[in-house]
Amino acid sequence: MKNKTFWMVMGGFCLFLYACTKEAQIKETVSNFLGFQKPANFPSPVYKLENNMVTEAGFRLGRSLFYEPRLSRNNTISCGSCHIQSSAFTQHGHDVSHGIDDRLGTRNSPPIMNLAWNKAFMWGGGIYDLDLQPIAPITTHEEMDENLDNVMTKLRLVEKYPTMFKAAFGTEEINTTRFLKALSQFMVMCISANSKYDKVMRNEGGLSFTADEQAGYALFRTKCSSCHQEPLFTDGTFRNNGLAPSPIKDQGLYTATLQEKDRYKFKVPSLRNLSYTAPYMHDGRFLTLNGVFDHYNAELQQTVNLDPLLQQNGKLGISLTADDRTKLTAFLKTLEDADFVTRKDLAEQ
Length: 349
Fold this sequence. Notes:
It comes from Mucilaginibacter psychrotolerans. By secondary structure, this protein is an all-alpha fold.
């Protein structure tokens, strides 16, 4: 009897210790959430955080919604289907993205990365508020082919969502505004700023560029930085970079503005995480960086509105020797952020 009592007491004590340990782990997880943190080498964000402060509950809700297939008509496609974390939130392996019913879009999925510093969204523009951006893929025929009213109805029927919305916004009511703000809270936390380049710029860990990386950095600043400005490695503008028009005759920004000066202009992409985001260009036409180098070196087309930076001194393009390519590639690899593509807090839970 005494042995039985002893083991009962010990069992209770172990359960108590386990509960305390678990509670401590939970508290530590909560206390580790710092919200939106601007990297030291980044400018101030464009996104108005004061209108939608990132909270842990809002971030968790946004993450759940990002990976929620009920956002699509037949409940099979989520944002995460075309924006895969291991590919820096692009759809790796496709030239143009595949949506609902395996329908083909017309463009390659752009990465979900450093969006808090973006003034415009989509390859062809037309959206200038991150809170409104998800409406486009949700309602587009080739992507999710759904409407927001149906999405809200479906979410209200899922047991976890009223509780999650209350934690994030103080009410169980699920509406479009809160839905979009929650998605933004997740997306602005998709910050890629922990590459070797960033650590060198911040003087972290005693890191420095190798000779080839330093030479590539010098080449980059001479030949590429006018459009791909540090530290985001894009200036956020829309430019015609001399691509031959695609068979579908995608006219880029012109489709949104109907202004002749915008014909064939597409958003300048960031050069961060290139090893994860192939293929390249708005329609994924180049499978490798060498394909991109070939284009700028000798394959530019004298299309309408070709960017002036690509036609100077009577010559088209950017001269790149084999040695230039090697050194540029060495530098571009310093922009790879392995932490970003493996961060557990950004993954589907």
